[in-house]
Amino acid sequence: MSTEFTLGAGGYTAVVTARAAALRVLQFEGRDLIVPFPKGGPIPDYRGVIAAPWPNRIADGAYVFDGNKHQLPINEPERETALHGLAFPLDWTLKESDAGSLTLSCTVGPTAGYPFVLELESRFALDEAGLHTSVTARNAADVAAPYGVCPHPYLVAGSSVLDEWVLEFTADSFLEVTPDRLLPVGVMGVEGHAFDFRSPRTIGSTEIDHAFTGITFDGGLARLSLRDPAGTGVGMSWDTSCPWLQIHTADKPEPVPSRIGLAVEPMTCPPDAFNSGTDLIRLEPGAEHTASWSIYAL
């Protein structure tokens, strides 16, 4: 059974597992703000994990970096991709904690397809404004390393079904993907498209599993709101380290429960960035990168 840690402050409760540094529970005054998963069991659908050293998927698990070809294990066989990085199967180590904050760390690599060494540190802190998370990566090797990161929470606005939730986030473009493998095709504008949520709009039956960009950062932060018609809601903000945002309506074939939460994933780079190079972080030896985001009740 994986170790877990409970935090509390400002009416919020958070439970983080050592496995994958995953956010298992986040509640405000007893109300779920994310889709939880059972204690001690497997983590379904990457719920709440830290996806590093890449977010989303890499086509064929293959890429070239600094002239060297690399082949990662395929962990999404139905699409022949390497999905959500290498940190999620790992047990992270407790560095420090108190009633309202927690810092976990792990080392990624060297391993098959990723002959680099990154030291990752994830800090979770609760206060009256919500849960604030940051992930810092440091290159602990003597060669440069490719890197990207994102969180993977499934947000819950309230007791109504997802189709009735009202979504708003200010992104003017999205990444069109192939229908079978969800690999990038090209960037398209949201104007006149079902993916335009620049003004608050009910999600309805729209199915989304796409990355968005052209995001508006106001005072260094981008914001997303998700509201239930009954009056509750959840919000998420993130800093300029994440110019991409993956949104997924969690559609599943029967009889698996479908559309039970909205995956909201601020990303430092788009899908398949290890191949496209788009916004891919190049971490030089000894260099660090930090990305931050927050989740809060509305």
TrEMBL record:
Keywords, alphabetical: Isomerase
EC number(s) recorded for this UniProt protein: 5.1.3.3
SUPFAM superfamilies: Galactose mutarotase-like
Isomerase recorded as keyword: yes
Gene Ontology MF term list: aldose 1-epimerase activity
Name of this protein: Aldose 1-epimerase
The species this protein was found in: Arthrobacter bambusae
